From TrEMBL:
Pfam families: KH_1, PNPase, RNase_PH, RNase_PH_C, S1
Organism: Amphiprion ocellaris (Clown anemonefish)
Subcellular location field: Cytoplasm; Mitochondrion intermembrane space; Mitochondrion matrix
Encoding gene (name): PNPT1
Membrane-topology descriptor: Peripheral membrane protein
Alphabetized SUPFAM superfamilies for the sequence: Eukaryotic type KH-domain (KH-domain type I), Nucleic acid-binding proteins, Polynucleotide phosphorylase/guanosine pentaphosphate synthase (PNPase/GPSI), domain 3, Ribonuclease PH domain 2-like, Ribosomal protein S5 domain 2-like
Major location category of this protein: cytoplasm
Listed Gene3D superfamilies: GHMP Kinase, N-terminal domain, K Homology domain, type 1, Nucleic acid-binding proteins, Polyribonucleotide nucleotidyltransferase, RNA-binding domain
Keyword Transport in record: yes
Domain of life: Eukaryota
GO biological process, one term: mitochondrial mRNA catabolic process
Compositionally biased region (Polar residues): 752-770
Protein name: Polyribonucleotide nucleotidyltransferase 1, mitochondrial
Family: Belongs to the polyribonucleotide nucleotidyltransferase family.
Length: 770
């Protein structure tokens, strides 16, 4: 039996080797091509690493190298969508570091890894053929990172090359670049040092014929014309990368596989749905009295009846074909309504906004709060202040890759299931929530003052959702920040632009006709071709994210979308200004307080306490947070003014005048021993002063290992000389040794020690207090 199992495994391995033999041989000769991007050279290579993958490519810029592999199953998935998984992982070894967790290995995914994975996914997903439902995995492996060139854009290009060079059906390639702007000059793939002074961080993914597939951008109030110019510059350079990948494809003579089955609705089923339900579907989409819930219920009722009719007439039809037939017809009716009749399902004009209402200061205990309602999308935002110590500390790998160590502004987006009348899990790290929160945070970050004395956390909780909740979070967050008294430079508003397009029958990659929709509903996002989200102030753009569902958008459509979003953004800001025009002059009374406390070096040891005991006790009793600013200054953060008053009383008690200012440098004083230690004795010069260490080296001219060698005891009085404070650590300097005669320090017997002690006590000089 064991022999048969081993034989089966051997045949299995042989089968795998034979299946990959053609792929392996096609990559046997490594090929490389270079792309000149301004002063930088991007290199794309394939055929050396990971040759068992369906596709593999390495992209290098400077000394940063990223390898991406693509593998797709040949057996279709039971899902009803494209099952694509993109995993981008930061490798500590690539950055020359070792992880600091207890296992010293890479563990869970970080926020940066998830956001970069989404970036790659959005760049390649639109180019997969419709109906290709085969499990596909894209893995991004950082080989080396030089700390100068960011690997995220390289990973997009490597994923494009890996898919293009594989036999996986994919209508690529695409190219991606980062565009920065320094003093009005556009930089392509800028270095980390250049990005530090850039007012724009734009990543654009382009497809052939200068089409745009994906845009992700954050900007510091960049003007519309400058932003549009940056997009054009980026798209121009993506075409060079596409040509380079196409050259590699021609050299390797890539042949795409023919899938076993492409999932689409059969024509006869679609025609039956048109006959049976099209009029009823049209009636629902043109009934403007419907809201999200009632419209969904009406369509679902028609869906169930239509599916029953299909099952009766086509009993052999697969469940997917039945479902997709209805979806095809309903999508067709919805899109034709916009394209041909210029009508939307809620009765609005194509460029009209939904009704907007705003409110602030909803809950007095909160540092800041706001409610933003746009149609049936409702977001509650709250602002919380905390100490600068509460800022997010990046892990060492993210710091090594991006240079960002911490940030004192964050926005967390929450999307509970009740927001769409559903039941589901809450909590955990949701990729969608993380992405939407990151976009809203980018929208607001440029207007936050850089020298604000607190860490700011904005929480955006979606209470109702019917489209564009991330941009509603940006609007609500801006209102809440002003309500909290954060002196933001300008209010921020965001809006989503949608697209309904019609492809050219002869050239499916080209758009024959299209309509842009302002402030889209959830159904317009689901059945449309684009979700184009833009946020900014009255002056310029702060963030932009374009998710495209078709193989690419002409630059003309992108420019029109930016213009249409700009008009809508200004209209929204006008409505928001009616609620609150500018930030509060001062923060709320129950808000946190931060003050600097000056502690002289001479008092620092007492202020901190042994091993930091006083600081820990202060923080535990009052709830304040203390951090050291410089040698003599400590920053005290209190969550409330009451806590600050308690902390001030505590500090005053610790650092109160203890007669030290009356001590005279060089004077002799009588000190009382309070404690015997191995390294010396603790003494007090006055009853209300803190005990001070008198080290063994200052007790006698003779070297001793323990004070007991001199017969010293607790409660005994000895004479010491005062030499002020140590300028480095602030400790009081005392010496008994300087008052002792070297000849009198030879101690042989206990009786001699006692006589010396008695003699010295009888010769005490009365201390003078001056």
């Amino acid at each position: 039996m064991k022999f048969l199992l081993r034989l089966g495994r051997s045949f299995g391995r042989l089968h795998v080797r034979l299946c990959h033999q053609s792929v392996y041989s096609s990559h046997a000769n490594p090929r490389r091509v270079g792309v000149n991007l301004g002063e930088k050279k991007l290199e794309i290579s394939s055929g050396r690493f990971a040759r068992f993958a369906d596709g593999s490519a390495v992209v290098q810029l400077g000394d940063t190298s990223v390898m991406v592999t693509a593998v797709s199953k040949t057996k279709p998935s039971p899902s009803q969508f494209m099952p694509l998984v993109v995993d981008y992982r930061q490798k500590a070894a690539a950055a020359g570091r070792i992880p600091t967790n207890y296992l010293r290995r890479e563990l869970g995914t970080t926020d940066n890894e998830i956001l970069t994975s989404r970036l790659i996914d959005r760049s390649i997903r639109p180019l997969f053929p419709s109906g290709y439902f085969y499990d596909t995995q894209i893995l991004c492996n950082l080989l080396a990172v030089d700390g100068v060139n960011d690997p995220d854009v390289l990973a997009i290009n490597a994923a494009s090359a890996a898919l293009a060079l594989s036999d996986i059906p994919w209508h690529g390639p695409v190219g991606a670049v980062r565009v920065g702007m320094v003093k009005g000059e556009m930089l392509v793939n800028p270095t980390r040092a250049e990005m530090a002074s850039s007012t724009l961080n734009l990543i654009v993914t382009g497809a052939p014929s200068s089409h745009v597939v994906m845009i992700e951008a954050s900007a510091e109030n960049v003007l519309q014309q400058d932003f549009c110019h940056a997009v054009k510059v980026g798209v121009k350079h993506t075409q060079q990368i596409i040509l380079a990948i196409q050259q590699l494809v021609r050299e390797q003579k890539v042949t795409k596989r023919t899938p076993v089955k492409m999932f689409s609705a059969p024509n006869d089923l679609v025609e039956h749905v048109r006959t049976f339900a099209s009029d009823r579907i049209y009636a629902v989409f043109t009934d403007y009295t419907h809201d999200k819930i009632s419209r969904d219920e009406a369509i679902n009722k028609i869906r169930l009846e239509t599916e029953e009719s299909l099952k009766e007439k086509f009993p052999q039809a697969e469940p997917f074909e039945v479902i997709e037939s209805f979806n095809t017809v309903s999508k067709e009716i919805f899109r034709n309504l916009v394209l041909n009749e210029y009508r939307r399902c809620d009765g609005r004009e194509l460029t009209a906004l939904r009704n907007i209402s705003c409110d602030t200061n909803l809950f007095k205990p909160l540092h800041g709060s706001a409610l933003f309602q746009r149609g049936q999308t409702q977001v509650l935002c709250s602002v919380t202040f905390d100490s600068l110590e509460s800022s997010i500390k990046a892990d060492i790998i993210t710091t090594a890759l991006s240079g960002i160590k911490d940030k004192n502004f964050m926005l967390h987006y929450e999307f509970p299931p009740y927001a769409t009348n559903e039941i589901g899990k809450i909590g955990g790290l949701n990729r969608r929530e993380l992405g939407h929160g990151a976009l809203a945070e980018k929208s607001l970050r440029p207007v936050i003052p850089k020298d604000f004395p607190f860490t700011i956390r904005v929480t955006a909780e979606v209470l109702e959702s019917n489209g564009s909740s991330s941009m509603a979070s940006a609007c609500g967050g801006s209102l809440a920040l002003m309500d909290a008294g954060v002196p933001i430079s300008s209010a921020v508003a965001g809006v989503a632009i949608g697209l309904i397009s019609k492809a050219n029958p002869e050239k499916p990659a080209e758009i024959e006709d299209y309509r842009l929709l302002t402030d889209i509903l959830g159904i317009e996002d689901y059945l449309g071709d684009m979700d184009f989200k833009m946020a900014g102030t009255n002056k310029g753009i702060t963030a932009l994210q374009a998710d495209v569902k078709i193989p690419g958008l002409p630059l003309k459509v992108v420019m029109e979308a930016i213009q249409q979003a700009t008009v809508a953004k200004r209209e929204i800001l006008g409505i928001m200004n009616k609620c609150i025009v500018k930030p509060r002059e001062s923060r709320k009374e129950n808000g946190p307080v931060v003050e600097n406390v000056r502690v002289p070096v001479s008092r620092r040891a007492r202020f901190v306490g042994p091993g930091g005991y006083n600081l820990r006790r202060l923080q535990a009793q009052t709830g304040v947070t203390i951090s050291q600013v410089d040698e003599e200054t400590f920053s005290v953060f209190a969550p409330t003014p009451g806590a600050m008053h308690e902390a001030q009383d505590f500090i005053s008690e610790i650092c109160k005048d203890d007669q030290e200012q009356q001590l005279e440098f060089g004077a002799i004083y009588t000190a009382t021993i309070t404690e015997i230690r191995d390294i010396g004795v603790m003494v007090k010069l006055y009853p209300n002063m803190s005990a001070v260490l008198l080290h063994n080296s200052q007790l006698d001219h003779k070297r001793i290992k323990h004070p007991s060698a001199l017969g010293l005891e607790v409660g005994q009085e000895i004479q010491v000389k005062y030499f002020g404070r140590d300028p480095t650590d602030g400790r009081m300097r005392l010496s008994r040794k300087v008052l002792q005669s070297p000849a009198a320090t030879v101690v042989k017997t206990l009786s001699e020690k006692q006589s010396i002690s008695m003699g010295s006590s009888s010769n005490h000089t009365t201390s003078t207090e001056s």
